[in-house]
Amino acid sequence: MSTDLMPNRYRPGESDLPRRESELIARRDAVLGASYRLQYRRPVHFVRGEGMWLYDPDGRAYLDFYNNVPSLGHCHPEVNAAMAEQAGRISANTRYLEPKLVDYAERLVDTFPNELDRVVFTCTGSESNDLALRIARFMSGNEGVIVSSYAYHGTSAAAAAVSPNLGDAVKLSPFVRMVSLPGPAGVPEAQAADFFEAQIRSAIMDLNRRGMGIAALLIDSIFSSDGVWVDPPGFIASGAAAVREAGGLVIADEVQPGFGRTGAYMWGFERHGIVPDLVTLGKPMGNGFPIGAVVGRRAPMEQFGATSRYSNTFAGNTVGIATADAVLTILQRDQIPQKALAVSQRLRAGLEEIAKQHYEVRAIRNAGLFFGVDMGPEGTPAAGWRAMALDVVNAMRDDGVLISTTGANEDTLKVRPPLVCQAEHVDLFLASMKRALIKVAG
């Protein structure tokens, strides 16, 4: 496992930078907290965005194959118009009657299975996961939470405490148990469900023995931070059933796989054939505007709400609702998930062709427009895999294409372009990746 909290970052002295950027970094370092880090060995400096593209001060365009938050692309004009129009009228909170709030809530829950028919709005995915954990602990009367071994679920105190991805200095809650995934463990797909269920039952048993009990299984159904271990579809279902059997709730963190990212489904959990108790949403919901939500079953939502106060002034504000409503309208009207699925098939085929020519590509995994590409040839040290992945990412950055890395060893390329990606963008990406591999591997 990589011990560097952000291996793909700028380190002073490692790169020669133009005066404009070096002076800006100096000013930044003099005023911002040390937790901030700049991505890439040579930091990128952007002044505007449009669709799939980001532009630096000199007008150079960078193809964005990394940012899932602007799900409909940067600065979508229709989304921005809805945001501006509402901001010009009124920005109010959920304590006042507002038809658009109810209209959007009805539209949103209609995209979910019938069992999930209540929504509470938040500002971020972190807040959504924080609230979902509160509801699960209230309903179950227990404290224990099960997560995957390298999961990331947010930055609030409660979410960070269930996010092993954040590093050893961020202490996990003593109520947390981590489970291994079948893919990284090398378990054959035919045995994946049994392996995952066994991990879950063992974690439940330990929590019960220590008097904590199980409150929730919290999973990102695309397992992004673990390295995009998406297959086989359905492998989490029996583990989820074991959690319910023990009195816990199933929480699906849909911040990354949701809103059509997987192409075939609106929500990532649907790919696994389950209906969770609670679903958490984040900023892709508003194309980057700070809005999120918890969607859930009626019973836990009503019982929690009847006895516990959740008051969040900014959450569900009318500007955020108008923005999110525009995003959902465009997704449905323009059939964005279906188009994204078709584009993902082109990207998959192109990556497989590259893998035939470059043995440095060890494996390819995807669900719709979310790809994990393992780097480094079999039989070489894991540190070499990580170094190669980082070299490829930075070679592509220098070529004007943005991606990043993921996984416990950071040796997996994380490729997740905005959902408006088109065939021509895929071809540009593939050409850049070929150039990067030639540059890095020789």
UniProtKB/TrEMBL annotation:
<dbReference type="InterPro" id="IPR005814">
    <property type="entry name" value="Aminotrans_3"/>
</dbReference>
<comment type="similarity">
    <text>Belongs to the class-III pyridoxal-phosphate-dependent aminotransferase family.</text>
</comment>
<dbReference type="InterPro" id="IPR015424">
    <property type="entry name" value="PyrdxlP-dep_Trfase"/>
</dbReference>
<dbReference type="Pfam" id="PF00202">
    <property type="entry name" value="Aminotran_3"/>
</dbReference>
<dbReference type="InterPro" id="IPR015421">
    <property type="entry name" value="PyrdxlP-dep_Trfase_major"/>
</dbReference>
<dbReference type="InterPro" id="IPR049704">
    <property type="entry name" value="Aminotrans_3_PPA_site"/>
</dbReference>
<dbReference type="GO" id="GO:0008483">
    <property type="term" value="F:transaminase activity"/>
</dbReference>
<keyword id="KW-0808">Transferase</keyword>
<keyword id="KW-0663">Pyridoxal phosphate</keyword>
<dbReference type="InterPro" id="IPR015422">
    <property type="entry name" value="PyrdxlP-dep_Trfase_small"/>
</dbReference>
<protein>
    <submittedName>
        <fullName>4-aminobutyrate aminotransferase</fullName>
    </submittedName>
</protein>
<dbReference type="GO" id="GO:0030170">
    <property type="term" value="F:pyridoxal phosphate binding"/>
</dbReference>
<keyword id="KW-0032">Aminotransferase</keyword>
